[in-house]
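Example record used in the benchmark description.
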Amino acid sequence: QVHLVESGGGLVQPGGSLRLSCALSGRTLRSTGMGWFRQAQGKEREFVARERWSGGSTDYADSVKGRFTFSRDNAKNTVYLKMNSLKPEDTAVYYCNANTPLESWWGQGTQVTVSS
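Model output (structure tokens):
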């Protein structure tokens, strides 16, 4: 059974940094597309960053491009989202997604709050 566990969220001041982690179990990271999404209170879930299942390309939402960096450690079966220059509008629950062309799985989410 595929399972995703996010960690690393918290409260940070504007301009600060956080690194989110997402540990995958139940399948091999190498053969899995991975992504990060977020959902602010009262809004729909939106795309943040992803690396396609076939590997290689990484895509970012325009709102985070240049500030957030997606990375993966296949040996640890873990992906990361390094978030720099955080803004109050980045406040949301951040969700990790694992996917193949046929299936998709979600983590439970981790709260990120950017506030002074």
